[in-house]
## 1
Amino acid sequence: MNEENQLPSPASPVPPQAEADAAQADALRGAAQRSRRAFLVTGALGAAGFFGWRWLANAPAVDGIAAPLRKVLDFNARLTNAYYKNTRLAPEFAKSRAQKIRFNGAVGLGAEFDPLAWRLHVQGYGPAAVPQQFSIAQLKALPRTEMTTEFKCVEGWSTIVSWAGVRLSDFLARYPLATRSGRPIADPSQPPPDAARYVGMQTPDRAYYVGLEMESALHPQTLLCYELNGEPLSLQHGAPLRLVTPLKYGIKQIKRIGTLVFTDERPADFWAERGYDWHAGH
Amino acid sequence: MKVLVEKHPLAIRWFHWVNFPVLSLMIWSGLWIYWANDVYRLGWGSTTLLKFFPDSFNQALGLSHKLGQGMSWHFVLMWVFFINGLLYVLYTIFSGEWRYLLPTRHSFKEAIQVTLYDLGIRKEHPPVRKFNGAQQLAYTSVVGMGLGSVLTGLAIYKPTQFAWLTGLLGGYEWARAEHFLLTIGYVLFFMVHIAQVVRAGWNNFRAMVAGFELEEVTPTTHEVVAGPTSLPAADASL
């Protein structure tokens, strides 16, 4: 820095008013121009955003949800499944904290039903499979699992409830139903590569149906359940056998299971066909 | 004389204006979801001061029977909300903008002065800066709230796989209540924010669109005599 710049020099005096006015006029012109451009661009982007949103909202629906939204839900499900580990458990509570659970949803629970004649039908998987049937006594003969977990409804409410039943994984460890080779699934945390990818379940009248990924089906807290809060399941709550899993919302925890299907195609799902996420869980 | 002074970088303006419609739609779809189990209220025992939400509110906004749609929008837009918020935070860190935004040890005191001034109780104008103490607290808290919404949201979206998080937040039902409370927080933030933007006037609003403010300076020294200076908050002494 030299001396000249530090001292006021006669060659560069205080700008006269005219110069200041010109500079200000320049600034104002520049401001007006930038401002106009910025508002036009923002307005255009806003309009683009609005029409983008309209396009999304009005896109052809797949099962009650605009197709692009459905794609993102399925992407979320793939991400969720990639993160999933069946060693991560839902919290369990003291049995004393169990509450009465509300009755919510009667689809598939028609009056024409004889619990005594009931059998669990299992459709075969793989080339050599034959359809099989199981009585409630056969299921109760398998290892019994009790758990007190929080039941979560897709509506947003939740209730702590005690359940008892047989783990679906114990059922599949005992009976070779879900593998192509016809071997039982010995280690539920590492199902063999020839295991079915999905389990589908239907009520006896086929009015209600759900699908789960095999990983969720083999989770240690996924039960074929026959007891609720220390008593045999009531018909309302799904007697003689229902699905219970804290991994999924109640809409997936089908009551009165009539048929089990092991498949590699994603099974139909009652609420997923009516605008809900197919995965709905973890 | 007036000069043009840069205020908000383009990136910040983008993050701000992307967030506005996205958060609005998140709240909107959230209301569709909440309707299916609208249990929250202000009150005690059997006395209810305010039900969330009164039937008239639900009816006026047409919120009923849209749970499935609400969930699908919510679980799509959550990505935009999260990514936009994350980029904003990263940008403020790497650009140095955080210096204007993070509260300092003076911010609380200044926020009280600002509030008293805004309410007309205090006559003395608090120091004028890019963001005053009240703004620093508000804009930093709202980012914290955003993080809170993401975490409480994840805790109720995936309560088993993130059971540790759900537990940390007090369990599933508490996490849902916290998620709701944060939403009420955004609405309150929005109302104060709009009132302040209206008060602050056109020059300030235009800066969030076009990036600059027009400021009065002394022609000789170009020292700002009116309008915010660009001094980082941390450098300003009170």
Note: DSSP finds nine helices and four strands in chain B.
## 2
Amino acid sequence: MDLFIAIFTGTIVAATPLIFAALGELVVEKSGVLNLGIEGMMLMGAALAFWAVTAGYSMPVAILAGALAGAAASLLFGVLALTFLTNQYAAGLALAIFGSGVSAFIGRSFGSDPIEALHGVNIPVLSDLPVLGPLLFRFDPLVYLALLMFAAISWFLYRTKAGLILRTIGESPQTSHAIGYPVIRIRYIAVLFGGLMAGLAGAYLSVAYTPLWVENMTAGKGWIALALVVFATWRPLRVLLGAWLFGGMTILQLQGQALGLQVPSELLSTLPYLATIVVLVLISRDRQMLALHFPASLAKPFRPAT
Amino acid sequence: MRIAAPVVACVLTLIFGSLFFASLGHDPLPTLYAFFVEPLSSLNGLSEWLLKASPLILIACGLAVGFRANVWNIGAEGQFTMGAIAASGVGLFWPNPESALLLPLMLLAGMAAGMAWAAIPAFLRSRMNTNEILVTLMMTYIATLFLSYLVHGPWRDPAGFNYPQTALLPAAAMFQSFDPAYRLNPSIFITAVAVLLMWLFTDRSFLGYKMSVSGAAPLAARYAGFRESAAVWIGLLAGGAAAGIAGMAEAAGPLGQLSPQISPGYGFAAIIVAFIGRLNAFGIVLSGLLMSLLFLGGEGVQMTLALPSALTRIFQGILLFFLLAADFFIFYRIRLVRPAKDAHALETAR
């Protein structure tokens, strides 16, 4: 039972940064913009949140700082991709490299001591329930925030007019522009939101998940989040399910030794990356389904015809 | 005009660098001197400069072949690692460690391993429609972990005091440097050949032309009957081969053995080198030399001014940002347009 609880809660926690980052990227891609720089934005968020904690700020402030760092980084991408109409692949890659450099630079003075991690919540009665308490009601607040964001984004994209406009822009910026929607401005907002979410994901890593600073501590989670969006065929519920699947992989890798798997730890660690490739292949084979959900203008620079 | 953007980007990066150093409380001019000039002021520095430029140029040449056709191989770091692993495997375990064939065999092994590592994303992209960006990147993480497994486990040097590293390669498995005092070795000639081959391919061959068309105008390429899968395969295999050879040259050159960290990020930096060099063979040579200087300068200021080597990656990112932004001013004409108020006035006047 204890092992089951450990695996279940571990999965949920490991999935949380992926949920933040992938949901943010989902909104960005729905608006027709591809930001490959998630890894860089997450690292900036992680570094800044960690710095804020060590500088004595409270946990909420630190997490907010991480989110804002991600948003600031995404603005760099936004200016290049939206105002300067550059190749979005190249701009995103530049952001990924830049973010990893800046975060390592900020983190040079952090040392290797862990900080006190974000606490789990303590809800009267609920948290004390046998089995259900530790299973559902003792996570840290960000885990619940991630689920809340999922609900909010699903509702926004498919149940509000603003969400419809965002998706329209992703399908055909020309049409949206002709109708009179400010395509570039809305795309900027989407990119900033994506940055905010990636920053949150990074902050979660450095102040809650593994509360210590390691250079390049995201270890490819930003890229896995990108893969998740494809895997989810641009649908929020599938992002959530995909993130849990990958969270499970991570936990399997951590618990692998405990479960008595006789595989060297380095090879077990390849699991999430292998799984990413496998699910990408499975999803991408079905061209028709991809074409159905793929934002038609994805990664194509848009210049309003005057 | 196409050459102007990289130059402008370099100048802007220098200005950014000065401001950045000033904000850290370092006098910008001496710091820039330490970063960009000091490394080149000694014979050893020049040797290191070319030594580091060589893998960057080599990999960038291979990658550019793919980039021209919109094939995004960003996993050169992994192909580099696999090349180094395969070449070292041959060097360490070949029955006759004094064979004159050892070095050529290692070269072939490194190239084959890099190509094999790139063939997986090529297959998945051309047959399964799988995005090569994500697959090449995931393959990089897997390659790094595989290397870590080898040097911590089966390939660890039994006489190595438990350090995670392999035994040293035998002398016949190493490039002999031109001068024992410096590390520069004949592997730079491989890079020179690669640059020439790349120029011939992209500028003088029909196949290279077809690849460029696939990249610049995919619909036109399809109409003309150029096969997309051919471009995918050639693009990825060229990058894999180049990165694999670069990995081999690194193992058989400055490294001499495998350890968990064998690349200071050559595979990723080469992407930027390819872009700054405008995906053109000779441009890549220049930008590779520049990027190598960034690596050297980063190491230099790390030692002399105690600034972190992460600066190199910051400068790499900034350089690419500025290049992309500069392109905008070259490809577009800026016109100031009055806001739509006038149109509204026109409407009401009617």
Note: The two ends of chain A are 65 Å apart (CA to CA).
